[in-house]
Amino acid sequence: MRNGFSFAELLLTLAVTGLLVGIAVPRLSIILDGIEVQSAAARLVAAHQRARMMAVTRGRVLVLSVRADSVTIRPRDGVAPFWSEAGPGAAQVALEGTTRQFTFSPEGLTLGLSNATLRLRRGSATRAVVISRLGRTRIMP
């Protein structure tokens, strides 16, 4: 009885493993892109809701600025933000378009715009965050 594997058996095992990894990695990359884009969209929805609630609870007009590198909530007449976090670009998620600013009244309504769409993309994964003037948010594929 012999113990161990022959060189040919070892080579065949490595070749099969390489093929399986070659098939799995691209699919895993697509899945990870989808997860990151969905996460970025959920963070934008949460920031929108946070800005709306802060405007109502503080009784002030607040501005939510959404940029690729940062998301901030600040008073309309102030420079220092009340809250800020990294934008979608931190996870290599592209935010299409220019900087978007949403102004919230103390009643929680968005001032100066009817509807807005924020488009996020990473690889082949895309999501659109649709925001209504009344404060409703939806994440669309």
Structural description of this entry:
- There is one protein chain.
- The chain is α+β, with helices and mostly antiparallel strands and 141 residues long.
- 37% of the residues lie in helices and 31% in strands.
- The chain contains one helix and nine strands; from the N terminus they run αβββββββββ.
- The chain has a five-stranded antiparallel β-sheet, with helices on one face.
- It is elongated, with a radius of gyration of 23 Å.
- The termini are far apart.
- The relative contact order is 0.17.
- The model has no long low-confidence stretch (mean pLDDT 88).
Topology:
Layout lengths: L6 H52 L3 E5 L3 E6 L7 E4 L7 E2 L4 E5 L5 E2 L3 E8 L2 E8 L4 E4 L1
Antiparallel strand pairs: 1-2, 1-5, 2-3, 4-7, 5-6, 7-8, 8-9
Q: What is the share of helical residues?
A: 25-40%
**DSSP summary, beta strand count:** 9
Report the major sheet. 5 strands, antiparallel
**Helix and strand string, N-terminal first?**
HEEEEEEEEE
Q: Given the C-alpha coordinates, what overall shape results?
A: elongated
Structural category is alpha+beta
Q: What is Rg?
A: 23 Å
**Order of strands, widest sheet:** 3-2-1-5-6
Number of helices: 1
Q: Proportion of β residues?
A: 25-35%
Mean pLDDT: 88
Low-confidence stretches: none
Termini gap: 60 Å
Summarize the structure.
It is built from one helix and nine strands, in the order H-E-E-E-E-E-E-E-E-E. With about 140 residues, the protein is an alpha+beta fold.
